[in-house]
Design a protein that fits this description.
Elements: E1 5-7, E2 13-14, E3 18-19, E4 24-29, H1 38-48, E5 53-58, H2 64-74, E6 79-84, H3 86-96, E7 102-107, H4 113-117, H5 124-136, E8 140-148, E9 151-153, E10 156-160, H6 161-170, H7 173-179, H8 181-195, E11 203-207, E12 214-216, E13 218-222, E14 228-230, E15 233-235, E16 247-252, H9 257-268, E17 279-285, E18 287-300, E19 303-323
Length: about 325
């Protein structure tokens, strides 16, 4: 069931004392996300309603947030905010991309990669103060997004082993809210041991900067860095992945345990991964493709989307207008 609420407060004075017209805001809430509660939703709603007209809708199935965001953009809503996990934000971004409606984010999931990349705390009550400040200051700037097979992504697409782990997690979606990172560790080990072929490459990666194709076991296509967080520690794959540059493709050319652990250990120390016999790194990509004769799994911003034989990526500069959080 869709639930809608509305709070109106027009003409509130902001900053320099000028009378500023209220913004129309749609808050898209995933009530099933790990950090979303009825109580903090009320707090978030109250904070955003200071000087603005806020409507709340709740998602109840995959793709729901895309339709909410698309409808809001058609109606001329000023800002659509995704309050949930990274998957909810991905859908909102896909719905408003290419329109005049701005995108906002609040951390409501277990990891909240994109919100934390922007400097937000992982607590939605603390984060909403920064977002409300950004809205009040009208700090809205265009950013680039990745685009693949008709969908946008904010921070990364995972292909191969990475996506197989996400698939394993989603099979136990009811446990995700309570277990969080331990569930991902369990899924990673289970996938490694029994559900992923480590004997030969799964696909070929072709980029605009490399003359030869790259045989890959798994690939991460980054729009931002870090790739994810392990607790409070960022897993830093490439500092070249920023919102104003092209895509970065990091491809693992082996799944030997020692080689993978050494590569990931370097990423945890910061500075990103360097090209080697284990890892191929291509930066500032305007386009790339991943193909195979057999289906391979993929995920966008942490949501498993199934298997395919081909992925075609593009970097879309100025794809969406983003509300930047502000400390004051």
């Amino acid at each position: 069931m869709q639930h809608c609420y509305r709070a109106v407060a027009r003409g509130t004075k902001r900053g320099d004392g000028d009378n500023v017209a209220a913004l129309r805001i749609l808050l898209v809430v995933n009530a099933f996300a790990s950090s979303v509660t009825a109580r903090n939703t009320v707090v978030v709603h109250r904070a955003l309603s200071q000087g603005n007209e806020v409507e709340i809708v709740e998602t109840n199935r995959r793709g729901h947030a895309i339709r909410f965001a698309q409808d809001a953009a058609r109606r001329g809503v000023d800002v659509v905010i995704g309050f949930g996990g990274d998957g909810t934000l991905n859908e909102v971004a896909t719905g408003v991309a290419g329109t005049n409606t701005a995108l906002g984010t609040l951390p409501g999931g277990s990891t909240n990669v994109f919100a934390r990349t922007l400097g937000m705390p992982n607590d939605p009550v603390a984060a909403v103060r920064l977002l409300a400040n950004g809205i009040a200051a009208h700090d809205i700037r265009p950013i680039g997004l990745g685009h693949v097979n008709g969908r946008y992504f904010c921070f990364h697409t995972g292909i191969g082993y990475d996506a197989a782990v996400v698939r394993e997690v989603e099979r136990r979606a009811g446990m995700k809210r309570w277990l969080g990172h331990p569930l991902f560790i369990y899924a990673s080990l289970r996938t490694w041991m029994s559900h992923y072929d480590r004997s030969e490459p799964h696909f070929q990666v072709s980029t605009s900067t490399a003359s030869d194709t790259i045989d890959g076991y798994f690939t991460i296509v980054l729009n931002t860095n870090p790739y994810t967080y392990l607790g409070n520690r960022p897993l830093d794959l490439s500092p070249a992945a920023t919102l104003d540059r092209g895509l970065v493709a990091v491809t693992f050319k082996t799944l030997k345990v020692g080689a993978i652990l050494r590569a990931l250990g370097g990423a945890l120390r910061g500075g990103g991964m360097k090209p080697s016999g284990v890892v191929d790194v291509q930066t500032d990509l305007s386009c790339l493709s991943v193909t195979s004769a057999r289906p391979f799994p993929f995920q966008l911003d942490g949501d498993y989307l199934g298997e395919t034989l081909e992925l075609r990526f593009e970097h879309r500069p100025n794809a969406v207008k983003l509300v930047y959080p502000s400390p004051s």
